[in-house]
Amino acid sequence: MKILVIEDEPKAAAYLRDGLSEHGFVVDLAHNGDDGLHLALTEAYDLLILDVLLPGCDGWAILSCLRTASRLTPVLFLTARDTVQDRVKGLELGADDYLVKPFAFSELLARVRSVLRRGSARQPEIVEVADLQLDLVRQQASRGGQRLDLTAKEFVLLSLFARRAGEVLSRATIAEQVWDMHFDPGTNVIDVHVRRLRSKVDDPFDRKLIHTMRGMGYVLE
Ligand code: CA
After folding, report:
1. CA-to-CA distance for 58 and 20, rounded, in angstroms?
2. Å from CA of 101 to ligand 1 middle
3. How far is the CA of 117 from the centre of ligand 1 (A)?
4. Number of separate domains in the chain
5. Same domain for 102 and 197?
6. In whole angstroms, how far apart are CA 96 and each of 16, 53, 65, 116, 138?
7. Which of 2, 70, 76, 125 can bridge 26 by disulfide, Cβ–Cβ 3.0-4.6 Å?
């Protein structure tokens, strides 16, 4: 089980990492909201432990970006605040649980286990376009029932195309959504990745799904 901890306070972050590692979890740390969001969007985690007040993107913003991107990774909020309003806001945004600082590690561990148990019982979210099928929870893609062997980045790129099927996506949009960066028109990094993705998603099949729109970008349909 892999957990991403987004916590700006170094001591608290190290305490969580060490404690969770001791209990057999693989833990990544992010010390600010922007790095945390980037990791959460590009890597596969079983759970996010998210501090609310963070430099850069705050906990609310991270959760809302994830849910907008159809990333259903369970989220456990950690916060120094404890007001009913905050709790309601977190739950409305799709947080799975809420823990108020300071907390005992044993309580955290119990919440982590309970969120993970509920998370695994959840219905997978599936996106389908023609014979292409994406399981956004398991991060698996297939065409005509045949599993596609994609890297994590390729999966993110393909899921962006599939969720916005029929919409022409500019290179700038793709750079922002998939790489979290501003598009540099001098590079062909997007085109290289799309080409690689096509070699897996389209080349082995008669019917092509990813199309180049000259001067505009790419569309999946
Ligand atoms: Ca904080």
Report:
1. 23
2. 10
3. 27
4. 2
5. no
6. 18, 18, 15, 10, 18
7. 2
Quick: pLDDT tens for 105-125: 999 999 998 888 876 555 457
pLDDT of residue 131: 96
State residue 154's pLDDT score: 93
Closest CA to 87 of 122, 52, 117, 113: 52
Centre of ligand 1 to C-alpha 76, Å, is: 14
pLDDT digits over 135-190, tens only? 887 789 999 999 999 998 899 899 989 988 899 999 988 988 787 677 787 888 89
Instruction: Give residue 15's pLDDT band: very low, low, confident or very high (50, 70, 90).
Output: very high
181 Cα–ligand 1 center, Å: 24
* Structural domain span for residue 104: 2-118
Show which of 118, 150, 179 is a domain's final residue: 118
Ligand 1 center–CA 102 separation, angstroms? 12
Distance 156 CA to ligand 1 centre (A): 28
- Are 138 and 75 in a shared domain? no
Helix (H, G, I), strand (E, B) or coil at 77: strand
Q: Which residue, of 68, 88, 118, is where some domain finishes?
A: 118
